Records
---
Amino acid sequence: MTIPALILIAISLVTSAMAQEQHLFNGKDLTGWDGKPGWWYVEDGVLTSESTPEKPCRRATYLVWTGGEPSDFELTLDFKLSPQSPKSNSGVQIRSERRPDWDTFGYQADMTATGNLVGYVYHHGRGLIAARGETVTIAADGKREARKLENADQLNAAYRPGEWNHYRIVCNGPAITLYVNDVLMCEFTDHDARQARSKGIIALQMHPGPPMKVQFKNIVLKPLNDTATSDPEAALVRLLQSDAGVQEKSDACRRLRQIGSAALVPALAALLDDPALSHMARYALLGIPADAASEALRAALGSLQGEQLSGVALTLGERGDAKSVDALAGLIGHDDPGVVQTAVGALGRIGTPEAIIHLRAASIDASESLQTMLNSALLHTAGKATDKGRNEEALAIYDDLRVQSRASDAVRGAAVRGAIVLRGAEGFPLMIESIRGEDPAAQEAGLMAALDLREAGAAPFLANALNSLPAERQMLVAGVLGEMEDERAIPGLLALAKAGEPGARLAAIRSLAELGTGSLVPPLVELMQDPDAFVAAEAQSALSALKGQVADAAIVERLKAVEGAACIKLIEVVAHRRIDGAKPVLAGLMTGPDADMRLAAIRGYGRFAAADDLGVLLDVCKQSENPTDITALGKALVAAYRNGGTAAACAPQVATALENASAQAKPMLEKVLRRIGGAR
Amino acid sequence: MKMDSKLRRESTRREFVKQIAAAGGVAAAPLIIPGSALGQGGKPAPGNRIVMGAIGVGGRGRGDLRAFLGQQDVQVVAVCDVRKQNRENAAGIVNAHYGNSDCAMYRDLRELLARPDIDAVLIATGDRWHAPASIMAMRAGKDVYSEKPGSLTIAEGRDLVDTQQRYGRVFQTGAQRASLPNFVFAGELLRTGRLGEVHTVYAHLGYLPEYPRGNTVLPAQPEPSKEVLDWDLWLGSAPWRDYNPAYLRTLPAPGWYSQYDFATGVAMWGSHTILQCQLDLGLGETSAIEYEYNHELVDAHFAPGQPSSRWRRGTDLREFMTVRFANGVKLVGTLTGWRGACGVRYEGSEGWVSTADGYSRPDVSSPLLLQEYDKLTRDYSIRNQRALNHVRDFLNCVKSRRTPVTYAGVAHHTMTTSLIMDMCLDLKRSLKWDPVKEAFIGDDEANRLRKRAARKTWTV
């Protein structure tokens, strides 16, 4: 798809471009240019195009520079048109659009062999729009105003037919100025709202008509910033004060946002009451750090209405301008709700003690909609006050908002949390009260505050309060306690795990797993034997999750002590934790009297057996007669071998064991040996 | 290459929990249940689903919407778009999904946000609206899943973080690759030390809608009725320009992707790839400090004969712009370098990994690394209790009040790096940034560009 032909103005944001000369033609080839094949070539270091009777040019074709779409620049070049036909015509496109098939559309610095059109500005849409010797301005509505400065014929004397001539084309803002051989030819200023274009491609023309030849050399492009305009700010101010169109003035504001100084504040302030430009004036003023910008905005508050007034209030807030607080407060009673909203929002953003006083005063008899705005702003100021260490002010706001009947859930929740967190440990009672209460927003805020206050010691306080809460709240609190990683919560959680409602017990056990140490092993082993299957499973899971070697040691101790189903469960835990210290105990269990226990021990051992364990497992083989045990031992042996074993070391061990093995164990050991041997 | 024993222990525990849960049917109960669902955990009955609204339901928004509809514990009750066609399409999808006609439609997001029954919102508007809409939603007490880029200016990102903290809402920026296995794997290789000391990371910035950036103002066309398209609301806080339908599409220029007022530049993909790099490096709470603009490197990408400035395909890992973090790690932005979109590459003293969209398995320095693909991605998920699904992670956090993987702070700090890279291209110079003061060092002009005056405010 092509860019729509209707594009009016394309502006580049690009700013302080490194202004440096660029030679667009390298004197050797067409690098950096794009033209219809066969029409452009380099002859003796000169860029050339020629039409002949055999190869006539029927339609204009252009050589387009592909290096960009410069906006403000000085372009200089030497050109020569063959004198054989007086109709020889060419030109240089600037700020133009590219069209398909090497065509273009836009401004052209014109040229003919006789010189009759040299120094003219031609435009594909509007024809010859500026003649040699003229100063022309086209207004936004397309109206053309021309003044004749010099005699066109006299100026033409500067042109040398059939020889090299020098074009200098200066594009600066809306103005295009042409010089030939250093003589000013014309000045053209384009504000046309429909046709003006502030940037575009550069291209050279091959014109249709009788045979001709055109040549170019020394094509140099200089961005304008450090040549013509040494004072861009002044130029922009002139533009703001001119009759230039909205678009150009907007673009000037964008630029001034970045470079403007206090000096141009008046020019911007003058636009604040212009509905079409007020925002862009603020856009620039927001960037200007000087207090003059704030001052101008403050001054404008008194005279503006509607959206322009709202906008200025908004930008004073964006600037955090403390001096505008009284004036903004004066707008809270304004008739226009949009103005009230931005003024209140700005006060919230500014957040000084004075702003807070105004906002709180306005709360006294505020309508419901105003109260909503005030609440949001007050929360904002509370955050600001806290940042500045003004905790008393912030607390007063939070305490007001958390009990205010008209506060939204979001505001109330934020206020509860703020009121608790800012008080630190002194906020704990409020934290419990909020969680215990029936307001969901406060409950959630209380729990979040607990997490915020972890380092202040919220966990033991919360844990102690567990038994005073309803079961569904106990679940939530238990969950939070698990996240808080504070061991002081263990007693409270343990009590809940033992004697709470079913759901709360699970949550408590889960959190104990997060916090727990070795000391939790005995109670968790107890819980693992709980009649409630979910509780038992959760406790088993918790045992496998407890952190640290102390827990490992404690689990081994319990493994020695417990019996029956609990022992089997604990074997699973041991295997999952891969507790090497438990292996001797497991080895004993592998030859015990209880078949289920033996099998659990063999399988458990197999889950983390290593090559070093081969001897132990082979010893067990000697004592085993049960086929199920023997099958399981086979798997354990292979697992042990795979965990760090080599065939060279393991195969002889198995082979030796095989010699003395019982009839039941032999087939299994042979199979194991094959597996090991197969790996050789 | 020894794995951190703590990580292993954690993972074993979680696996165990999973096994038991699978066997015994013990579902993980939510830590905190949203207001509308308070009372019970477990299987989502109609009364305790997360009630959601979707704001901005064009192409991307409808994709996100479908992702949310696919989650059993979500009930979408409303859609909102300034364009009638979009909201009707989206409501049709929702109604077809539930087999009813209950989905409410709104033109103005303020009306949707005013509904007290809505717990959370999806925001998939145009980029200019992401931060303002997120801020409005959080002020209204909603949890927010917002598309990336999360912010258009540095100041906006700061507001986003402050608002999130003030209201304690769950916020997830839609950098969904942070939850995709091939990217998670790359991150885990980095985090677990398998790449040794990581000194250089590469971020794909390939989708540059327009360079240099600017605005293209077209002539006015007749504005449709507010009901069909609310143009004022479409523009939002951006500078006014007369209506022209050419802005409504994304590309080609002057579609809104290409416009300074409406979108970002390299930050478009940086919002994925730079976020990804910083997250994996553990630098989610800071931004790069040195930004090196080398005009030769940049210009070379736009010299005659180079591909267009849009998404360039190619695996040539050619430097475009480089930034550095305070810890010395270098991030190289490139326009090509992967076989798919949004690639990242991490290089360390002992190996490297490189991945992008469409890589079922990342490219790695040694095939040994890939043997652990399943294990590492699973370990990540279990250790951090993160779903390998970005939408799911958000929903889990809505229930648990945990912090999502790409929370507001990460969104802001990584967008800051991306936005500053865009500013280097705008200003054509190198910049230095103080991430604590959130200010440029010795560049007043750049400091002015941290914010843009809003045309108007839409605050709820």
Note: The domain at 22-223 of chain A is CATH 2.60.120.560 (Jelly Rolls).
---
Amino acid sequence: MRFALSEDQRILQASLGRALAELSPLDRVRRFADGGEQTAPDIWRGLAELGLPGLLVPGSTAAWAWASWRPPWPRRPWAQRWRRRRSWGPSWAPLALRGGTAEQRARWLPKLAGGEATAGVAISEVVAGARDGAGVTAEGGRLTGKALFVIDAPGAHLLIVADRTGALHLVETPPAPVEMPNIDATRRLSELVFDGTPAEPLGGNDGLARLRDAAWVLLAADSLGAGQVMLDKAVAYAKERKQFGRVIGSFQAVKHLCAEMAAELEPARALVWYAAYAFDNPGDVAPEEATVMAAHAKAHLSEIGRFVARTSTEVHGGIGMTDLLGLHYWFKRIGLNRQLLGGPERVREAAARAQGLVAA
Amino acid sequence: MDLRLTPEMAVFRDEVRAFLANHADEYRDGQAKDVLAWQRLLIAHGYAARTIPRAYGGFGAEPDVLKARIIAEAFIAAGAPRGIANQGVSMLVPTLLEVGSEDQKKRWIGPTLRGEVVWCQGYSEPGAGSDLASLQTKAVEDGDDFIISGSKIWTSTAHAAQMMFCLVRTEPNAPRHEGISYVLIPMDTPGIEVRPLKTMTGQAEFNEVFFTDVRVPQANVVGGRGRGWFVANTTLKHERGMLGDPNATEARLNSLIEVMKTETVDGERILDNPVFRDRLMQLQARVFAMKFNGLRIMTDDTAGLARLVVKLQGCELNHQIAALAIDALGELGVLYHDGPHLRAKGRWQWNYMFDLGLIIGGGTAQIQKNIISERGLGMPREPSSRAAS
């Protein structure tokens, strides 16, 4: 038994960190955020060269190349290094294709694994609850209705859509996405209207549950990484900034804020790791554990993420609020992740239900 | 990352489970019927004192974090009492193993493990709490002995202990961290007076101990004269591990879940109230985080910071679990002492009050935050500490 990143994962962590520092420095992030680009093909290409899009595609060349990994996502490093990208890191949409036919898989998985195609995901209504009359109905191979908070829709070659019953569908001619401007200018959320749009059903009973659990773990990891960055920056700033003739990091009032952030983040890291492990190795854990841990990770990182985001900003003083410093990109990412695909209260209810703690 | 059990480990797990099933009539409600007999049985099977060498009365197994975890989980699942985890077992024994003389190890470790000798800890003084290094209890050399005078406070189990491990100032003129020695003192030595210290719980969980010309052989010093500060830090490290033990926290959470499943208000289970259920889930996430943090500490050599946060977070979490249990019980939650409606012998209120002492003791939460920020995050030390050390 070993509960730690493997040597391979640490190597990936380091190389991914180097690649992202080059591909996506803060001025590139700013250009994306302020310039209204819908996709960032330069960054995507760079990551595709590392083989990352294929990590969740079973049997792909990339998956084979990284076959020594367990689990296939090194969550912490990705979360930490990958925060600046437009997309979600390794496309998690391929998980939905596990339930598809051999033909569907053959058609899409190689392209998704190679990064030549990307997939959007429209499952918000059945996971987080329907708002403003949204919801998609499937009938006779066609989808009708509205989907909100669709992830990665701009430029997507295919869409994974959940209908009102939770069944998944594959859409190869996605309707044009309408941007839903949100606090995090590095993530594009969209509204999509289906009007008799052709769709193929995706089989597999647990397709939506697996996709949801994966998304919850990834969102938790993303907030963990963002929180870690915010702590690191607060500590670095507190060691430099002087007031009253001392660095502010020598005042207990400031040190203790930093200690509280670290005290929340360290155990949360272990929770995210375990949730990822349980997701990847359902045979090694109790049947409900993957969902319970994914939900707990998502909700808990939402709570402590909010604490770290405001505390780090506060440690920075007024400069922490400025656009110039750019700390707000992580602040907003944490804020987005908290609500996306279910706020903490809703997700915790799912954790309780998965354990049989909710009366039928 | 691999948490699977090998076939060998699965066999081991089954052995532990079978042991607990075979001896199920020797414990009830998490308590052993005969504590000392249970302890001897656990040591004989390697479920207590597992990695302590046989020569000193332990089981003598190689350290194995997975087996330790399997044992802990099986005991939690069975509701079986773990071995004795008092200050002697958890703090003195590891310290003696690290820095004790051969004579000291042979004489004290075995009886301590078997529960025959109970220890108390003489660290804090009325004027030396968080600033422990300012302690004033003095030991003056007299032939082969020390003559000890002064007083200690917060000495739990002093009334029941046969022995104390104690910090005294042996070199009054040395820099303050270098003038302290770690001494083993028999509690029946003339000149020792123990006074119970009643707390807000209504019980006396602590004592004050007064020393008036107490004669102790110099041979009772552990780790060398003037080295007491460093020896004590070894012990504190073990204490903090004990105070934040995630297995104990998980067991407490399971009790809380039972309360919420069985207690009803207007015929409705507490668990079916969505507000209480949400609060329970919030704490459960924290308990799991601490549990996996513990797993990581055992096997990940990059887990330095993870280790430093255990005492702070674990004690706070225990306190929050007690608080939620009291809220879930509602008006029943204020009952205490005795009475037909009293639940769990008033344990939740007792925990809620006494746990404040654990948040404060063993290094206050504020001292823990100093440690986390200074050693874990590399932030500047307190100017006053630097000036004084």
Note: The first strand of chain A starts at residue 119 and ends at 122.
